[in-house]
């Protein structure tokens, strides 16, 4: 029993170290969200830092409300992609590690 607990503790420490590495790497991974058939696009990291916003020039003469809606939709698309990619990275690390009582990592 004591050896099992020690083994589990070593596994937990290794998972924790790997999680730190993944969390750090998420700041360098970029995703692109878009809306309006690509008229608006937003590039952001998986840590939700927006790096670039592209707006098709044809939208600049359009209705301000429509442009705001397209920006919001592109941002939300990028956030969903960042969350999905982050979850995939975390799942790859925690695969096979027994999580007591349905415990989840804070992502």
Automatic annotation (TrEMBL):
<keyword id="KW-0963">Cytoplasm</keyword>
<dbReference type="Pfam" id="PF02575">
    <property type="entry name" value="YbaB_DNA_bd"/>
</dbReference>
<comment type="subunit">
    <text>Homodimer.</text>
</comment>
<dbReference type="GO" id="GO:0003677">
    <property type="term" value="F:DNA binding"/>
</dbReference>
<dbReference type="GO" id="GO:0043590">
    <property type="term" value="C:bacterial nucleoid"/>
</dbReference>
<dbReference type="InterPro" id="IPR004401">
    <property type="entry name" value="YbaB/EbfC"/>
</dbReference>
<protein>
    <recommendedName>
        <fullName>Nucleoid-associated protein CDEE_0366</fullName>
    </recommendedName>
</protein>
<comment type="similarity">
    <text>Belongs to the YbaB/EbfC family.</text>
</comment>
<dbReference type="InterPro" id="IPR036894">
    <property type="entry name" value="YbaB-like_sf"/>
</dbReference>
<feature type="coiled-coil region">
    <location>
        <begin position="5"/>
        <end position="32"/>
    </location>
</feature>
<keyword id="KW-0238">DNA-binding</keyword>
<keyword id="KW-0175">Coiled coil</keyword>
<dbReference type="GO" id="GO:0005829">
    <property type="term" value="C:cytosol"/>
</dbReference>
<comment type="function">
    <text>Binds to DNA and alters its conformation. May be involved in regulation of gene expression, nucleoid organization and DNA protection.</text>
</comment>
């Amino acid at each position: 029993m004591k050896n099992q607990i020690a083994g589990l503790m070593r596994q937990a420490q290794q998972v924790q170290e790997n999680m730190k590495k993944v969390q750090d790497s998420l700041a360098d991974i970029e995703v692109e969200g878009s809306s309006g058939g690509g008229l608006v696009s937003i590039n952001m990291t998986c840590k939700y830092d927006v790096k670039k916003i592209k707006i098709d020039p044809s939208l600049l003469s359009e209705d301000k409300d429509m442009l705001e809606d397209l920006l919001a939709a592109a941002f939300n698309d990028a956030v969903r992609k960042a969350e999905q990619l982050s979850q995939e990275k975390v799942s790859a690390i925690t695969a096979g590690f027994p999580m007591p009582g349905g415990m989840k990592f804070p992502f």
